[in-house]
Write a structure and sequence with these properties.
Blueprint (H helix, E strand, L loop, with lengths): L1 E6 L6 H12 L7 E6 L5 H7 L6 E2 L16 H6 L4 E4 L2 H7 L3 H13 L3 E6 L3 H5 L3 H12 L5 E9 L13 H14 L4 E10 L7 H5 L6 E4 L6 H5 L3
Parallel strand pairs: 1-2, 1-8, 3-4, 4-5, 5-6, 6-7, 7-8
Helix pairs in contact: 5-7
Length: about 240
Amino acid sequence: MKYIIFNWKSYLNLKESENLSNIISKIKKSKNYKIISAPNNFFHLSLSKKFKANTFAAQNFDLDGRGASTGSLDISHLIENNIKYTLIGHSEMRSNHGENDKIIHKKLELSIENKLIPIVCIGESLKVYKSKKTKNFLNNQIKTIFKKSHMYEDIILAYEPLWSIGTGLTPDLSEINEICKFLSNILKKYSFKKINILYGGSVNLSNVSDILNLQFVDGVLVGSASTNSSFINYFK
């Protein structure tokens, strides 16, 4: 079964999110795909009441905790709305809000403590890619985020090259497969009950089928393309 995760970012208002969620709810359960949507964080309450909550992921949560933290989203709000998944370390949180791998590690630990399934995002810059240091960069990210002494339950890892997100550029299919194979091999040094490796970065209707057919890719994390009903209907 392949994971299909829709990251709607801040493209949609509540009504538009409900419309797409309604389309998704009518797609028959498939042995081939597991569809999860990540709407605007503040829409979870409304959407989880109307649709199956365990089909939603949070786009992020804060480490501040409950209390005097204006604008923060505490992890308890996800739990009380039965949200099952959460994105952690998306490149836009890293670039726009200063998150680094040490923060991602703390969020990973907190999500595990609260029985949320984390979708951990990693990926290299164009400079790293052009210097052919992608594998070394990703390995260092994993070393900081994960601990070899820890036994992890259910983890989803999303490889998202930063230079590919929202640009229309993607690595060659052979490169995607090679990197996901590399990640699979280095993750054998860690203890996971279940680990799935996804690809994200300018996934669209013209390339999603080829990417999903790659041997070492367990699914896709899709941004703007997933706000289009024609992309969603592809998985009927």
